[in-house]
């Protein structure tokens, strides 16, 4: 599964870890995260993330 990086602060969403504090279970692909989820570090919207090669 691909990782996604916040273009605002550099936080990297790793689907293997998820975002338990944000209600995202480990193993959740970025594409399946709800659209209203925000970066747990800076609060940027999901559309501010870009796929990491």
Structural overview:
This protein has no helices and three strands. The protein has strands at 3-6, 12-13, 49-52. The relative contact order is 0.35. The mean pLDDT is 97. The chain is 0% helix and 19% strand.
On the 0 to 100 scale, the average pLDDT is: 97
**Count, helices:** 0
Q: Secondary-structure element sequence?
A: EEE
Indicate the structural class.
Answer: mainly beta
What is the alpha-carbon Rg in Å?
Answer: 10 Å
Strand content: 15-25%
Topology (elements, then pairings):
Blueprint: E1 3-6, E2 12-13, E3 49-52
Antiparallel strand pairs: 1-2, 1-3
Question: Which short descriptors sum up this protein?
Answer:
53 residues; 3-stranded antiparallel β-sheet; mainly beta; globular
Q: Brief description of this entry?
A:
By secondary structure, the protein is mainly β.
